[in-house]
């Protein structure tokens, strides 16, 4: 049975899922996959599947914000998604982080509304340490500029007033 928002069914989703925000990024990621199949395109949710170095991968865009991300996650889990990596853009307030550098979030300060629907405020939002370590190893070998640390997730995009 197809999920109501992502319009996907279990046989179309792999356990490994990449989650860009912008639907156009789904197309950009698909260029790195082989055997690409376009699955669905509804609202902010665009889904493709393919293979990266033989590994089956699903890519689903989530739109902007935690609420639409939560919808996509819930439905992807119903379809068999198990391992998720969020890809996308972010801001930085730490010196030394350049435009285009990769930021690998080891944990996040949760100042958003959606995550509060799932876990209490004092629950730590930490990435899987094994996945983070594996990503660091690959990034170090690639020579691509990257930074690892704690990030912040919040709902306001234009009203920050941090000094």
Fold and architecture overview:
By secondary structure, this protein is α/β, with parallel strands linked by helices. 21% of the residues lie in helices and 33% in strands. The chain has three helices and eight strands. It has helices at residues 23-30, 66-78, 129-142, and strands at residues 16-20, 34-42, 45-52, 55-60, 83-87, 102-111, 125-126, 146-154. The strands form two sheets. Strands 2-3-4-1-5 form a five-stranded mixed β-sheet, with helices on both faces. Strands 7-6-8 form a three-stranded mixed β-sheet. A hairpin with a 2-residue loop joins strand 3 and strand 4. The longest helix is centred in the C-terminal third of the chain and has 14 residues, at 129-142. The protein starts with 15 loop residues before the first strand and ends in a 9-residue tail after the last strand.
Which terms would index this structure?
8 strands, single chain, 163 residues, alpha/beta, 5-stranded mixed β-sheet
Give the class from helix and strand content and strand pairing: alpha/beta
Largest sheet: 5 strands, mixed
Number of H- or I-type helical stretches: 3
> What is the subunit organization of this protein?
single chain
Q: What letter string, H or E per element, gives the SSE order?
A: EHEEEHEEEHE
Give the topology, please.
Layout: E1 16-20, H1 23-30, E2 34-42, E3 45-52, E4 55-60, H2 66-78, E5 83-87, E6 102-111, E7 125-126, H3 129-142, E8 146-154
Parallel strand pairs: 1-4, 1-5, 6-8
Antiparallel strand pairs: 2-3, 3-4, 6-7
Question: Quick recap of the structure?
Answer:
This protein is an alpha/beta fold. It has 3 helices and 8 strands.
